[in-house]
Amino acid sequence: MKPLTKNYKVLATLVVMGLSSAQTTLAASAFSSDATLTYTITNITNLSNPGDLSGLQILGYFEQAGAPDSYVATAGDGAITADNPTVGPVSVETSFSRTFAVGGNVTDGTVASSHLGWFRLDFNNLGSDSYAIELALDFELTATASGQSADTDIFLDYFRTSSSDSSLPGFTNVSPSLGFGFVNASVFGLDNAATSGSSGPLLFSLGPNASEGLHADVWINGNLQASPVPLPAAVWFFITGLLTFSSMRKRKAMA
Asked: Whole-prediction pTM value?
């Protein structure tokens, strides 16, 4: 019986080692969110000289705002990565598309983050003609969260801008908001979410030397928390019982 008793002892030792190691296992938390915005110009007409677009400049921009609009606060081993395809000014013919993505993870600690991305499409009339422009803004928002404690959300707001006002860089008067989108994912409820939409046809009229544009703000927020996971009391009772059983078998074999 000694070999059998030895096997039980080895088994018990391995179980204790494995479960002791598991006690230090951490419950990781993570989130991933992204927003893809696409401006599509469906029609441009020169109202003064049909077919001549030489006096019209169309530029696309993307920029991530700095602090305090964008910030990251981490404790422990938390980390955040942001895909910031900063671009601009880029000449645009018919479309301009960019994806703004933020993700984070933590296995022992906390993460709190907020990122603001600015998307912009500008129409600048550099001449004396007048133009009529039709375009649409399409968007796709996705968010996922997993782990011990995680949540993330995306807010999108888009609106017209004009050169008659100075409340935004390069612009001055901001007209009322034209649209809004929102998506949220949380381990306390949904673990993933997605939405898509479109502004529909938007019409712009540019007189001589005028500027118009469509501006979009995208907020991506994320919060994470993770800490060591203690073993349930029942597991330790199981270990104690296994060791006791092994000891009894050993004494019985010696007798």
From this structure: 0.76
